[in-house]
From TrEMBL:
The chain crosses the membrane at residues 114-136, 148-166, 186-210, 230-249, 264-284. This is Polysulfide reductase. The lineage of its organism: Bacteria, Bacillati, Actinomycetota, Actinomycetes, Micromonosporales. It is found in: Cell membrane. The keyword Transmembrane applies. It is a multi-pass membrane protein. Keywords: Cell membrane, Membrane, Transmembrane, Transmembrane helix. Residues 20-40 have a biased composition (Low complexity). It comes from Micromonospora qiuiae. The keyword Membrane applies. Belongs to the NrfD family. Residues 1-89 are annotated as: Disordered. InterPro entries: Electron_transfer_protein, NrfD-like.
Length: 403
């Protein structure tokens, strides 16, 4: 062993003291960059570890790194931490990513059948309300159009649900349980109660075509009063049918659906009313379409107000409603709603304008339902919409506790 070589412990203490002095006081002005240390004092200092002077003033180690990144008061926004030798390391701002780019939530497995069901269920509900209003105000043509449209809508809804389930008996299995806390279970029973009432009301419209005598004559006499009762019953269930799908979507963990739970039923209710009114404007002469025009204005108002609240109140999770395919569909839906209402009011005496307005309202309802569906799917696939709002909520709670 070299007798002039210092013990390991002493060399380590000197090296530690030199590092501490370099990180707090800087190097002497006369020290040359990259100068080696004295023999026996430890390993040589790396070039650039001690700085020279700028304008006659000594500079601390790492001053060039701080200057390049803008210093503490400059333009550098990254976090800074102490590195080896006391120098500050500029770390760029963290970019959010999930593990391997995988979504945190499992996206909905629903396909276009469910998006279409959102439309057909709303159409049936709005048409039943329109038919009940026409029944109470003595407008047979509008009543007939509403009842037949309601039957077509609920039939299409059943077909779409079975297509999504894959096996028809699965819908029957849903009826074995009644669970008030499950929107899907409640919706199944709503649809089951609404279907027969809407069907009986629509069948009553064929009573004048039956013969006056015999068993069919009895049916001819019995169907109109039964149809009136069934039509009012269907109209009583229609609000639940038109809005339970919004509750079903909001009850999921999908960020853009769940965050919109106070306003999504309002959007669905308005869209249902507007679509039912649109079918009435297409099917009847303008002289009998007064209730349809008023229903179109009310439905459009509810839908536009609800959509505005969804896009302005939710913060980050409202972004899927504005961008991509969902954003395009929802903008088209709003534009078509405005066009349909304007045509319904300004073209009250024109059958062609009324029919065009009704078609615009129907197309607007389709675009709105599909847009909301695609917005939810997009928010589930991007982990930002799951994690960042959670962090914001945690930060708000921490701030409230600190007050």
């Amino acid at each position: 062993m070299n007798p002039r070589r210092l013990p390991v412990g002493e060399r380590f203490r000197r090296f530690r003291d030199r590092l501490g002095a370099a990180g707090t006081t800087g190097a002497p002005s006369g020290a040359a960059p990259g100068a080696a240390s004295a023999p026996g004092d430890g390993p040589p200092t790396a070039p650039g570890a001690t700085g020279g002077s700028v304008g006659g003033a000594p500079t601390a180690p790492g001053a060039d790194a701080r200057t390049a990144s803008g210093g503490r008061d400059g333009e550098g926004r990254g976090r800074r931490r102490r590195g080896r030798g006391g120098e500050e390391l500029a770390v760029p701002p963290a970019e959010f990513r999930s593990y391997y780019g995988r979504p945190i939530l499992k996206p909905p497995v629903w396909t276009w059948e469910i998006a279409a069901y959102l439309f057909t269920g709303g159409l049936a509900a709005g048409s039943s309300l329109l038919a009940a209003g026409a029944q109470l105000t003595g407008r047979p043509a509008l009543r007939r159009a509403g009842r037949l449209t309601a039957l077509a809508g609920v039939t299409a809804s059943g077909v779409l649900l079975v297509m999504d389930l894959g096996r028809p008996e699965r819908f029957h299995h849903m009826l074995r349980v009644a669970k008030p806390t499950s929107p899907m279970s409640v919706g199944t029973w709503i649809l089951t109660a609404y279907g027969p009432a809407a069907g009986l009301a629509a069948v009553a419209e064929v009573a004048p075509l039956l013969p006056e005598r015999g068993p069919l004559g009895l049916a001819r006499r019995m169907l109109p009063p039964l149809g009136r009762a069934a039509g009012l019953a269907a109209a009583g269930i229609a609000p639940a049918l038109g809005t339970y799908t919004a509750v079903l979507l909001s009850d999921t963990a999908v960020p853009s659906w769940h965050g919109a739970y106070p306003d999504l039923p309002l959007v669905f209710a308005g869209s249902a009313l507007a679509s039912g009114a649109g079918m009435g404007l297409i099917a009847v002469p303008p002289t009998q379409a007064g209730p349809a025009r008023r229903l179109a204005v009310a439905g459009a108002g509810l839908e536009l107000v609800g959509a505005h609240r969804v896009q302005t109140r939710l913060g980050l999770v409202a972004e899927p409603y504005r961008i991509g395919r969902a954003g395009r569909l929802l903008r088209a839906g709003r534009a078509l709603t405005v066009v349909g209402v304007a045509g319904a009011l300004l073209g009250a005496r024109s059958r062609v304008v009324s029919a065009f307005s009704g078609a615009a309202l129907l197309a607007a309802s389709v675009a709105t339902r599909f847009g909301i569906f695609h917005a939810g799917v997009a928010s589930a696939r991007d982990p930002r919409y799951t994690v960042l709002p959670q962090r914001e909520r945690l930060q708000r709670r921490a701030d409230e506790q600190d007050r």
